[in-house]
Amino acid sequence: MLRRHWLTVMAGVGPDFLRLGIEEDGRLIGYTDLADLTRTSGEFGIALGDPAAWGQGRGTRAGRLMLAHAFGPLGLLEVRAEVHAPNARSHALMRRLGFVRAGEGEPDLYRGERVPVWRYHLTRDAFTF
Predict the structure, then answer these.
(1) Which residues of 16-28 are buried (b: 16+ CB within 10 A; e: fewer)?
(2) 41: exposed, middle or buried (C-beta count within 10 Å: 0-12, 13-18, 19+)?
(3) N or C: which end of the chain has fewer CB within 10 A?
(4) Which tens digits make up the pLDDT trace of 47-69?
């Protein structure tokens, strides 16, 4: 069942969306994506499905690779991201990747509870390749 879920998630949607799998030892452990792509911007997303994969730098490495692709070959000028306020690990990842908090978005469901969403922003000039 979980494998089927990940395969569905990995399928992506449309030309304004890019999703790449994060693999380890030949198995899919997560993904990183760019959504709402235009010629100059996109929205960054990342997920590691197995908690055993958390806290070991995998998300940071995958995120840096996706952002290098966004600001390099894709030629984007800026990338946005949104994180649920209680998700401390994701906030830390955003900071490690160079994102700066840029305000608050609409509240959203997170683990069954409606919570604030923090917006982040990163420009090509601020990104460290």
Answers:
(1) eebbbebeeeeeb
(2) middle
(3) N
(4) 998 888 888 899 999 999 999 99
Fill in the amino acid letter for 30: G
Strand extents, DSSP E, 18-112:
18-24, 27-35, 41-48, 78-84, 100-110
pTM for this predicted structure? 0.86
What pLDDT score was predicted for residue 2? 44
All structural domains of the chain = 2-123 (3.40.630.30)
Contact, 67 vs 75, CB < 8 A? no
pLDDT digits (tens, 9 = 90+) for 65-76: 999 999 999 999
